[in-house]
Hints:
It is a single chain. By secondary structure, this protein is mainly beta. Among the domains are: 21-84, Roll (SH3 type barrels), CATH 2.30.30.100; 219-300, Beta Barrel (Thrombin, subunit H). The chain is 7% helix and 44% strand. It has helices spanning 81-84, 120-127, 156-159, 299-307, and strands at residues 2-4, 21-26, 31-39, 43-47, 52-56, 60-69, 72-78, 102-105, 108-111, 131-136, 139-145, 151-154, 166-173, 176-182, 185-191, 196-201, 213-214, 225-230, 238-251, 254-259, 271-274, 278-287, 294-298, 323-325, 340-342.
Amino acid sequence: xxxxxxxxxxxxxxxxxxxxxxxxxxxxxxxxxxxxxxxxxxxxxxxxxxxxxxxxxxxxxxxxxxxxxxxxxxxxxxxxxxxxxxxxxxxxxxxxxxxxxxxxxxxxxxxxxxxxxxxxxxxxxxxxxxxxxxxxxxxxxxxxxxxxxxxxxxxxxxxxxxxxxxxxxxxxxxxxxxxxxxxxxxxxxxxxxxxxxxxxxxxxxxxxxxxxxxxxxxxxxxxxxxxxxxxxxxxxxxxxxxxxxxxxxxxxxxxxxxxxxxxxxxxxxxxxxxxxxxxxxxxxxxxxxxxxxxxxxxxxxxxxxxxxxxxxxxxxxxxxxxxxxxxxxxxxxxxxxxxxxxx
Length: 343
């Protein structure tokens, strides 16, 4: 039985020789060339001049370094993984990334290049203000900000059937946490079948909010350490840590991330972070008769919902239904084939 749960700069010395280029040969006979910025067990970060690419390991067939020298146009040699492992790590940057190191995707952002891993202690101090508590007359859950303008994600079941929603936010001011409640909250979009809801704080005089970066499910590895921040049983700002048990657990016709991270009622809608401080899932349920059997909605599903939010726009005339019914045909008008569409 399952139960739903409520600018760092790096100066490099100039070289007399031209910079080394690396060619990454991909599957389906494709390839891309550039300078390796970092190489990790699950991905390679490559600067191709006009942008930075993060290439998953499972898409790479071979890596070849091309050293350009003045006396010849080019010479090519194969490079072992041990040599490339010595490539410099990407420097850590603050979570409040600027447009120069974040890919904007509408109302949310993702880090590029990928940040270095840090400790849970460091990340919780940095990310805590971006995680919120979502309260309704019927209960409470968790959520997290997508941008500084007050857009946030939670679970659909946290706000299902509710219109009076308040958001508890902990602002960091001079090293102290200042708790503030916001009550002008608008439901922007929701999808009951994906158990996701997009909200926006519209209180007059609301400040800019701390926010999170979204990760990539494809770059997530089984056994990778993750942690959750939320309000289990109303205990706000609770941190629990675990690993990813599997990325493809099928439950009720959908795929979920399974994690040993402890989650309980009140964690619903909260973020599941990796050690780079990116949200890689939204916690939403657990098996109640077991321990360490929690589940989270993969972040790629969340991105799909956000990128298609207009299709799931909230309807004030029918607030409790995730469907929008088409009007009946008038006299002399042909009947429409589709009688119902997803909101």
